[in-house]
Every structure is written in structure tokens, then in C-alpha cells.
Amino acid sequence: MRQSQRILPVYAGDVSGACSALFELGGMVVIHDPSGCNSTYNTHDELRWYDQDSLVFVSGLRHADALMGNDERLVADVVEAVGQTRPRFVVLAGSPVPFQVGTDFAALARLVEARTGVVCRHVPTNGMHDYVRGAGLAFALLARAFVTAAREGTRAARPPRARVNVLGMTPLDFAAPTSRESLVGWLEGEGFALTSLWSLGCTLDDVMRASQADVNLVVSACGLDAARELERRLGQPYVVGLPVRGFGPALARALDRARDERRSRNAYLELRLVQSRDKDLLKGGIEAPRTPASAALALVGEPVAMGSMAAALGGRDVTARLVSPVEDARRLVDPRLGDVCVRGEEGVARALREAAIVVGDPFFSHVCARDQRLCRLPHLALSGRQWLREIPDLMSVDPMALVGDAMRKGA
Amino acid sequence: MLRRLRPSLAPEAGDQRTPAWVRAADASFPRPVPNVLEFNAPVHENWNIVHTGMLMPECHQIYVCADNCLRGVVLTAAEMGASERLSSVVIEEADLLRDNLESVTIEGVSDVLRKLTYHPRAVMVFLVCLHHFVGTDVRYVYAELERRFPRVRFLRCWMDPIMQKTGITPEQRQRRAMAELLDPVPQDENLVGVLSDDLRLPDDSDLARLVRSSGRRLMQLHDCARLDDYLSLGASSLLVTRTAVAAWGLAKVARRLERPYLYLPPALDYEAIDASLGRLAQALGVPTPNTREQRRACDAALDALARRLAGVPVAIDALAVNHPLELARLLLEHGLDVRRVYLDVVSDEERGALAWLRSQAPDLELWSTVHPTLRQRPRTDGDGWLAVGPKAAWFVGTSHVVNVIETDGHWGYEAILHLVGLMERAWAASVDVRSLVPRKGLGLPCACQMPW
User: Fold this and answer.
1) Which residues on chain B are in Cβ contact (under 8 Å) with A363?
2) Which of A409, B61, B220, B338 is the most exposed place for a label (fewest CB within 10 A)?
3) Contact pairs from chain A to chain B, CB under 8 Å
4) Is residue B449 one of the residues assigned to a domain?
């Protein structure tokens, strides 16, 4: 049964994703829930909870209030807390019970905004999806509600260095403390200028200036919805990819081309398709890419990081396929390359069955066969703080080194 | 009356907004600070239902709930190194449309049990808030599971925090379910069973000594390596718990088993301790013990502690001890400078202590642990403070902390002496609070790693 999990945890929930995306922006996030969502978020999913004071609260929803539709208590409590803590904005996030009873969050947000004068919106989480959905909704909300269109002239003066927003960076996917520094260092080293980075080391003012950028770099599945929203609203093209070692130059070229052509692209999928065609042509083959459904190497996890690693490995003649157990990833994988989107423990186990080598979170060892080799790449969004200090800075990971030992043992 | 000379920082009169704390003199019962939005401090050493459930041998836990709720319990087990003993069934949106969650619950639990690599003899099935709201036919669910798996004992548990403040709590239901497993086996006159407590009662506690002095044998849940050992507690001639949330369920089970039971709260008040010892002695059929020497020993230890901690402000939290207001009173009566108690609700058992504090220590500060303004409040009172409890340590910002939960499992005069010793040692040494208090389930394995 797809929904039963013998041993694997589920990925961080949509509520955690939304809270993580908004954590540093000076707003208040209110999770409308009895208690569990907030505690799970700040215990297992939020590394910054101990040291940084962010206004993330739970409403403490009670049985009687939910049954009777007493939303006034929530509104009154939020209004009072806004007066006491002075956030720059308020976001209401839903959980399973409000979803079930049909709480009208849009109306509640309007009430709070009218009574406080502080911008209030809601993200339609319901605790039944994963962090990619939640963070995606939150980033898209920022793109819709807070990014102001650039004035005429600001965009017209084309600077020599492309200005870039980075979208989709939260500790759930980038837990290593040097992650931001590495990414910004790479951007600057490649001649790009950072406009905003959503949202690590980022303020609401940075987000509001995002329209000044020439191109958006989507570094995780969480950033895709915002990128599409900014493309729709402002015509900003985006590039999907993460500069893992061996993939940086191709990603930089993709950013330049996206700016020049004003066309969005997925850099790692494009490169992997080219690599796949080249191989087939060398074999005297066919036009369409080969489908390596039985590729010996499977990368399981967040698709942008894993896809970028697969592209880097492809440059070293190692074919890998992606197994994406997170939601909203269909645009980030390519079935022609053997990639699959799966849900649940059974789905992951089935997708990994053919692989000799698996790269992914150590938890996946529970669904690997004895003769499969697992290259450990812990992921906060799955295993929480269990292997926190083993989580590497993804930009400094050499994918070849990661799988090298396992490949040598298998040879 | 104990009145502090420093100026009061109490919330200004006329401010209608809910404050984060109140003076004891102004504290209402049972919630000194009313509930508003809640902040969750990064202190997680308390036990949750997963930890408690793991005490039951040969038992598997299955949670049937949505992603967000599920993650916390699965990772709790993982950090304990007990992933193999906990499984889950994920509720999705479509399940809410299909039926009243009966199908996904029955099929999901059945599927998990078929996939397990071992055969648990007992299974705790946890239903959640959503099951209440869609009107799940819980009897049908368990009848069907018992039909499919006749050799498994199913424990009817809940993870429904929506009932936490106004109904029977998940902790109460779980403890009742654990006790319900006991069958009415022939009574063993010499056996006293202690169950439904998180922490093991030390062998030198006042309770254990009194039981031994009556010639009886004490057996605890924690001593049971196999389910059969646990089931043998059904032979107890007297059932005892020290846990408030266990009393409701134990009363029902004791009635079914036709056995006496006692709830003996871990009080830190001499009269209350003596009252409990008297009830236990009566149940055991022995004379009530004379506690004059123990009182004298406690007084001497507390007086010595007061001399050692002269001028040191003390903060207490409700995580550390079951009866924080009684501890505050006890310490104040012996001359210690207790300034703050962090608690969100006052139990009925502490009504007397609250009344005493209102009149005798009106400036004692009763702080909420969840008020939203606490997120921004500086936590820099510093190492000049002694904290009794991990939350107090975090809020105050001191590294001198008595890092215990639930009175460290101790009871009675022995508990008071134990706490005095811990306070002395905590004042003499510092600990790294940041690396300690975010860990879950104090006293159990926790393999989590702290941020850099």
C-alpha cells in the first residue's frame, strides 16, 4: 500500500516548508493548528530556532473552536500579538483540521490586515503535503505580494554583470552553514551580481528589490513556483540548477544564455539530454535519447541538487538517473533519462530496485537490498537532525568522489 | 510575608494586552497567563507519547496521520534508535473524501503489520484529530483489525492535541490503553505494581521503602523485559501511579480488575507527602510511618542550601518538577531567593501552594512558557541565576541548571533531598545548555546532532 511506511520517515511537511521559507524576513507566521505542527517544525526542521528570533507561532486551535467555527479567537490573538511584536507582515498557514472544516483563511487574513494595518496573507498549506509544496507556496506568495515591479529605466540600463536572484534556498535543503557563502562565492566568481537570495541571509527589502535582477537561479524545487510567478509577472527568465562541482561552468553559461535569450531553461536536464544523445550517437545510434531505466546509479532526493550532480557525473561518463520522492517535481525530472517521481516507501523501494549504487539520505538504507551500495548524503528535509553534522555543503561536493568508492568496489 | 525590596516590573495597570507573566498575587487559577498565540521554546527534553510507548515491551507503534504530524513521531523514534518499532500510515486529502478514514486506517495498519520483519504481540494504533472530525467508527476499525490479526493485542491510542486543553488528553488515553492490557489474573498478595509512569521509581524512595517494609514486592513497568512480565502486573494486589495523567485510566482499569489503586502525586510539600504515605500505609495494612527525622533532614539540607545560595536568584520550571509551586514555596520558606516560576497551568494539587504564594510571596513572578513576546525577550539574565529545569535555563540564559524532568523520577522526602543535592551541584558547575536542552526525551537515547 502506497501510504503505509514501515520505517521511513516522511519528508518535512508543507507547514515546515512555508515557515522555513519565511523565517528570516521579519514577518510573523501563524500556524492554525492545535500544537503538533509547530513543535515538529522547530524540533526537526528548523536549525535556526535556538539562535534566531523569528515570529513563528501556533494558534493552539481547540476542539470547540474548530467545531463551532469560532475564528474570532484566532483573529483576536493574531491582532494582539501583532501589536506586541511588530512584524513587517503576517502569514496564516493552515493545517489538517482547518482544512477539514473549511476555514476561510483569505477572509481571516483580510480581517487581520484591516485591524492591524499590517499586510496579512495566507499560504494554503494543510499539513498533508511535503516541504517542497509549502516552501513553494510561500516563495510564490513573496513573488506575488511583495516584489514590486522595477521602475522604467532600472531594467533598461543593462549592466555588464548579470544580476541574479537565487530562489529556493532554505536549511531544509541547504543545512551546511557554509552553503550561502559558497553559492554567493560561485556567483561572484562567475561574474554575476547577487540581487537577492530567497531566503537565507535575506531581508524583506531584498525580496522587494528582486525585480531588478536579470535572471533567477532556482537552486531547489522549492524555488520553482516563485520563478514561474516572476516570469509571468515581470518577464524574468529563470534557470534551474545548482553549481555542484563539475557542473558550475555549464550552469553559468545557462544563466548567460537565459539573460540574452530571455528564455527559461533547466540547465541540468538540458546537459543530461545532450550527454545522453552524444553517447547514443557514439554507439551509432538514434535521435531520441536512450532511456536508461536500469542505470546502475540512482540519485534519490531533492531533484535539483540530484539532477545537477547527475549532470556533473555525466560529464565524467557516468550515467545516473533521478528518483524524486518529493512533490511538485515533475517539471524537474525527465522520464526519457530514466528519471522517476515516486511517493512513499514502496515507491522509493521499487524505483531503487534496479540500482547497484544509490546516492541519498542514510534512511534509504532501510529500503536498499544488501547487495546495493548506498553513498550517504544526509538531507535535513528527510532525516532531520539525525545526521546533521554529516550534511555537506552541496556546492563543495564532488559527485565523482561521492560515488567513486562505491563504483570501484562494484567494478 | 516575603516581600522583595527591588522595584516591581509587573505589567502596567491599564494595559489590556495579555502579559507574558504575572505576580503571584495577581495570578488566576488554573492559568496564570491566559492562552493566546503560542511560542514553542527550543527545549524538548520532556517525554512524548512515543517515548512512553517505547516502555511497553514487544509492542509496535503505528500512527495514522497527515505528513506534518507524522514527521515528529517518526523522527522521535529514529533519534532513539528505535525506528524498527514505529511505523506510519499517511492520510491524504483523497482519504477525507472517500469515507470516514476507516479504509485507510484498517488497510494501512494491516499493510504495515504484514510488512514488519518481526511479529509484535501488542500494537499501539494512534488515531488523530482528523478521525474525530470525520466521525470515524473507531469500534469498527478495531473490530476489523482484531478479526484480521487475532494474535495481536491492539492498544487504542490517540494523538489528538486538539483535545489537549479541553478534553481527555492523548497522554491520558495512551496510559489507559497501556493499563487496559492487564488481565484479571489471580491476585498475588505480595505484589505491588507501579505502572503508567515515565521514569522509574528509585529503589530508595520513600514509597519503595514503605512497600518493602510491609513485606511486599514492588514491580515496575520499567522492570519488564517481555510483554509477559508486564502482563504479570495484572496480579498486583495494589496498583500505584505517580503520574497525574495516568490516574484517570488506572482508576477504570483497577475497577475492571477489582483491585485497589492509588495515585500518589510527587508532591514537594511535607503535609502532602505524609498524606500520600498514610494512604499507601493504609492500603498495605501497615502503620503510617513517622517522618519526623526525614523532615528534619530536609530542613537541614534546605537551610544549608540557602546559606550556600545566598543572594542567588532561582527560577523553576514545570518541566523539571511535577509540582513547581510547591518547590517554590519550600525553597522560599527556607530562605532561598526564588524569583520566577515558568508554568502555563496550575494543577488542582497545587492550589494550596498558589494560595500560599499569593499571600506570602506576592512578587514571585509566574511566567508563561509559550507567550509570543517571549520569542523576542532577551534571554541574558545570565549565570548569576540558578535554573531548576531546562526551560527556566533557556529563558533565563544561565548555564547553572538542574537538568531534570518529572522530579527526576524521585518521590517524597527523598526527592527533596535529591533536588537539594542537584541544586548544589548545578551551582558549582556549568553546562552547555545549547547542546543539551533541544534533545528529546531526557534519560533515553537521543542520537540527534546539534547545529554547528
Assistant:
1) 78
2) A409
3) 217
4) no
Q: Is the pLDDT of residue A151 over 70?
A: no
Count of domains observed in chain B = 3
Instruction: Please check whether residues B143 and B254 belong to one and the same domain.
Output: no
The pLDDT of B52-77, averaged and rounded, is: 96
Is residue B258 predicted with pLDDT exceeding 50? yes
The percent of residues in chain A predicted with pLDDT above 70, rounded, is 94
B284, B319, B337: which is the final residue of a domain? B284
- In terms of CA atoms, which chain B residue is nearest residue A58? B38
Question: Domain with B63 in it: what CATH number?
Answer: 3.40.50.1980
Checking if the pLDDT of B17 tops 70, the result is yes
Show the 3-state SS of chain B: CCCCCCCCCCCCCCCCCCCCEEEHHHCCCCCCCCCCCECCCCCCCCCCHHHHHHCCCCEEEEEEECHHHHHHHHHHHHHHCCHHHEEEEECCHHHHHHCCCHHHHHHHHHHHHHHCCCCCCEEEEEEEHHHHHHCCCHHHHHHHHHHHCCCCEEEEEEECHHHCCCCCCHHHHHHHHHHHCCCCCCCEEEEEEECCCCCCCCCCCHHHHHHHHCCCEEEEHHHCCCHHHHHHHHHEEEEEECCHHHHHHHHHHHHHHCCCEEECCCCCCHHHHHHHHHHHHHHHCCCCCCCHHHHHHHHHHHHHHHHHCCCCEEEEECCCCCCHHHHHHHHHHCCCEEEEEECCCCCHHHHHHHHHHHHHCCCCEEECCCCHHHHCCCCCCCCCCEEECHHHHHHHCCCCEECCCHHHHCCHHHHHHHHHHHHHHHHHCCCCHHHHCCCCCCCCCCCCCCCC
Q: Same domain for B196 and B273? A: yes
Residue B420 and residue B335 in one domain: yes
Residue A283, pLDDT > 70, answer no
Within a domain: B379: yes
Q: In this complex, is the C-beta atom of B438 within 8 Å of any C-beta atom belonging to chain A?
A: yes
A128 contacts B451? CB cut-off 8 A: no
Residues B331 and B427 in one domain: yes
* Same domain membership, residue B95 and residue B164: yes
**Whether the predicted pLDDT of A40 surpasses 50:** yes
Contact A37 B69 (CB under 8 A): yes
| Contact B38/A at CB under 8 A | yes
Residue B99 contacts A, CB cutoff 8 Å: no
pLDDT at B98 (0 to 100) = 84
Structural domain harbouring B133:
57-176
- Predicted local confidence at residue B6, as pLDDT: 43
A303 to chain B, closest Cα gap in Å: 20
> How far A317 CA sits from the closest chain B CA (Å)?
36
Q: Domains in chain A, start-ordered, CATH in brackets?
A: 14-129 (3.40.50.1980), 163-270 (3.40.50.1980), 271-410 (3.40.50.1980)
Does the residue B181 lie in any domain?
Answer: no
For residues B89 and B133, membership in a common domain is answered with yes
Kindly tell me if the per-residue pLDDT of A360 is higher than 90. yes
User: How confident is the model over B95-111, as a mean pLDDT?
Assistant: 94
Residue among A8, A84, A127 minimizing CB distance to B17: A84
Q: Do A127 and B68 touch (CB under 8 A)?
A: yes
Give the B window 48-77 contacts with A, CB below 8 Å.
65-72, 74-75
Contact call for A128 and B67, based on CB within 8 A: yes
Q: Closest Cα of chain A to B175: distance in Å?
A: 19
Of B224, B257, B284, the position where a domain reaches its end is B284
Question: pTM (2 decimals)?
Answer: 0.95
Q: Rounded mean pLDDT of B39-58? A: 97
Say if residue B171 is in the same domain as residue B254: no
Cβ–Cβ of B451/A11 closer than 8 Å?
no
B87 with A6: Cβ contact below 8 A: yes
